Write a sequence for this structure.
């Protein structure tokens, strides 16, 4: 590995020490449906996001609530208890996962294609800068 690549790898490694993220992969719903709920909680404080997800009627909110708990656990592993700290969601993004292609029988010997989509969600959490003082 060259010097430039090694230095960049070290910078990335240092940046990851202060990054608190978790991800869910291969969730069996379309990315578009998941993005509706992810857009609701992006930038929110964690307790408010829990309340929003709890009372949201969309099925994707259960998966995002599970992911939010996992992200908070990652933060607590690196920093200790999160009781006095005001955490908020810095980034949430939804990527397209694997698409299963199926066929549905149609009239006159034809077949219609069914695409069963999945998605990957990644969430980042951080503490408010003024809360650490």
């Amino acid at each position: 590995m060259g010097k430039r690549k090694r230095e960049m790898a070290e910078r990335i490694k240092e940046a990851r020490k202060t990054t608190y993220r978790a991800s869910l992969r291969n969730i069996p719903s379309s990315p578009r449906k998941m993005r509706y709920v992810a857009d609701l909680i992006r930038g929110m404080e964690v307790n408010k996001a829990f309340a929003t997800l709890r009372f949201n009627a969309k099925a994707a909110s259960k998966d995002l609530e599970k992911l939010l708990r996992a992200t908070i656990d990652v933060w607590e592993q690196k920093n200790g208890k999160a009781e006095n700290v005001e955490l908020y969601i810095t980034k949430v993004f939804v990527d397209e996962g694997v698409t299963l292609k199926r066929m549905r029988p149609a009239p006159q010997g034809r077949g219609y294609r069914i695409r069963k989509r999945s998605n990957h969600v990644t969430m980042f959490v951080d503490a408010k800068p003024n809360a650490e003082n």
